[in-house]
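Submission sheet (multi-component)
Chains listed below:
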Amino acid sequence: MIKLLDSYKRLLQIYTLSSNIIGTPRLPGRFVPSHQNRHEIRFKTSGAGERALQERQRQHMARGLPKQKPIAGVKEVIVVASGKGGVGKSTTAVNLALGLMANDQSKSVGLLDADVYGPSIPKLMNLKGNPELTDKNLMRPLVNFGIPCMSMGFLVEEVAPIVWRGLMVMSAIEKLIRQVDWGNLDYLVIDMPPGTGDVQLSITQNIPVAGAVIVSTPQDIALLDARRGAEMFRKVNVPVLGLVQNMSVFQCPKCSHQTHIFGSDGAKELAQTLGVEMLGDIPLHLNIRETSDKGQPVVVSSPDSPEAEAYRRVAAAVVRRLAEHPR
Ligand SMILES: Nc1ncnc2c1ncn2[C@@H]1O[C@H](COP(=O)(O)OP(=O)(O)OP(=O)(O)O)[C@@H](O)[C@H]1O
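Outcome: structure written.
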């Protein structure tokens, strides 16, 4: 009974914050996966960084929110978010994680699929199966390309529709984050569901997030949603590391003619308006789609391609932004 009351108290806090952020109170009840949530995380350990983190914690708690608790063994959490679905967020998250490792092989990187309604990391990382349990009863992540991964897709049938209520979603996210033996990670990249909803709020409230990477196509509608996502992160005190413009240009493989299918510089203009950095430009390329579909991400399967280079540049920009950002 006490547990139930606690859960409802937490839900109420989340809905209160949700209405502050989004303007419209979301009523408890069936959760609609509306492609409207996104988010990211970070955390820091000493000196000026420690003080900045404490200040963020203080502001966080002053709003009546629970104390954020770092994930055991994880140094920095990076959230990859997008305002709407289908803009290439998961593809970016996977190639960002691999790019972080490719740029500096001494770094250990993990990948968490927080898109509990439509987990795509198992397919993109070519992973299948159920996690084993450690003797501490923690789930052992599945590993491919040197990246430990956790996803709801490892715990449910591939074709099972995931229809959950808000509390169940939050409990699932909490389990995917904390009941996992992540080992020691320099970076945990979290692939968020699209939009600005309960999952994003739950993650940003419970974990200190190092920064958010927002993925958008140059198209107006995607940009509007990206802007909403960026503003949500700012309101919950999560630093926006910058924007990735995806599918910016299509180069015909036959004649090399370049076409800006979704417009050209939309994300760049949005980055300027929001005062955030452009972390990179990823072309619309058949190689990216095909390698993703095969579970052989372009950064590992075609490391010498310009597409892989584009993702590695994004990873380098993210590391630079994390270092620059006062933590
Ligand atoms: N730069 C790109 N060039 C070509 N295809 C791409 C590119 N980025 C993503 N795609 C393809 O677009 C589709 C959607 O990508 P992805 O699943 O990463 O998007 P998403 O934003 O995570 O979608 P959702 O929110 O629905 O999970 C996939 O088929 C992917 O292979």
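Remark: The chain has eleven helices and ten strands.
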